[in-house]
Amino acid sequence: MIGFSTLFYKELLRFWKVSFQTVLAPVLTTLLYLLIFSYVLSKRIEVYPGVSYTAFLIPGLVMMSMLQNSFANSSSSLIQSKVTGNIVFVLLPPLSAMDFFGAYLAASVVRGFMVGLGVLLVAQIYALTPPVHIFWAIVFGLFGCGILGCLGIIAGVWAEKFDQLAAFQNFIIVPLSFLSGVFYSIHSLPPFWRQMSRFNPFFYMIDGFRYGFFGLSDVAPQQSLLIVAASFLGLSALTIGLIHRGYKLRG
Amino acid sequence: MTTAIEISGVHKHFGSLHALRGLDLTIEQGEFFALLGPNGAGKSTLISLLAGLLRPDQGYLRVLGHDVVRDYRLARRSLGVVPQEIVYDPFFTVRETLLIQSGYYGLRHNDAWINTLLERLDLSDKADVNMRALSGGMKRRVLVAQALVHRPEVIVLDEPTAGVDVELRQTLWAFIQNLNSQGHTIVLTTHYLEEAQEFCQRIAMLKQGQIVALDTTQNLLASFERRELRLALDSAGLPESLRPLLRRSIGSTHILDLPSLGCLEEILGIIRQSGAQIEDLSLVEPDLEDIFVSIMSEQASV
Ligand SMILES: Nc1ncnc2c1ncn2[C@@H]1O[C@H](COP(=O)(O)OP(=O)(O)O)[C@@H](O)[C@H]1O
Ligand SMILES: [Mg+2]
To answer: Which residue in chain B is spatially nearest to A88 when comparing CA positions?
Structure first.
């Protein structure tokens, strides 16, 4: 337990010491998205009756920033440690696969939530109404950040160089998160793309998270929760298995 | 008493490279052991296998009787490893680094021992300095401290004195010797053979993934018969028949290769017969370097 909590603490410290880049910068980037998209589109679109486009956009952007930062946290910590060689400091001690997995995952979720809260805070310039089902929002936030934390661990363990990690991010994470309905409801898409979106797990994270804010969603939140929870459990099992086998960590 | 390190039938491949070819080695508790060999012999690979950073393709390794793969928790708790490469985490200070490393071993209140380590390794005034701001030699000493935070019984150092200046090297040796005298098993690799000769009781020489010599330092030195004979002769000079043994001459001093002690009598006889007078004579004992070079070149011709 001390082993786990120390690694968790070290991972928190790692991003907190550079919180300017790891928390403030992503909040600012997301704020820019919000300002631009809401300015350009707010007059034209009303996704749900009675919900302005800006109000619709905010939870999506919050969740997207949470997901991206959860991924960034575990993946960049691992690749940095591997490239600089200081990964041996966590490979030499008697830490179990669960300690290792749990610590990187938990730190990723914390970073995701810090960025998410930061975005929500600055989004108050638009005077939001508070979430109607905050519990649902938190649950989807946890699972979403958990999934991306797992993906970050897998990518960080797999990649040997920074550009491989960048490829993973640019070709998998970014497309999936942009095509997940952050900026639109999938009901506004042509049938083919609407169908495709249903294979994107990110869609269910965002849709479920948004349900927590408005009580309105594209699919039933129970269904989203089932898919998101199953994805999380499956990915966790895969990640723990990889760490346990020493995949790319203990050659 | 359980053995400190037990290595049996260990093979390791990197792709098509057969880096370790069936290694067997047993090191008892309390030994001060040196692992020698040219670059690429497989010393660091063996240490990584012991530490669980790599996994063997075949065979097993045990630390204090604990299999490094199956009983990894107990094995790693008993082992402290100082890696060959200088690595550090640039986010932390020296003290933070050591506190965090203690936590990984499940130790929470380790400040007293950390302070002792800092003091013994001459790092006290750097405790709150960021790792980035330390010199190479200091970073290496932090690595030594990191390997010792959990007071391991078996300590493995991979070229601990590489790139460390003479004064610090002595501090480090005194420290390591002290640990050994307290009962810790020490295993190290080094490029400075005189260090191994001075400090280590037993030596294994590794070449291309195989052990080519394994004995006590004393036996290795004694079994090596070649010595150097220094003769200062008068103007009559060195007899022609001894020319083949001549390594070099400095003025009237001739340095001869003495294949074995038994040849000494014969050589002196030849000189007496030639009428030359011996003005001075000395025997130079072999050192580890001679043995190392000889063993490494012997095997190359096989
Ligand atoms: N991770 C690795 N991948 C591929 N080859 C390696 C790896 N580590 C070591 N080697 C190779 O294995 C051999 C033994 O290396 P090493 O154990 O570092 O030797 P030493 O420490 O005795 O100098 C060398 O030929 C080296 O190039
Ligand atoms: Mg080496």
So the answer is: B53
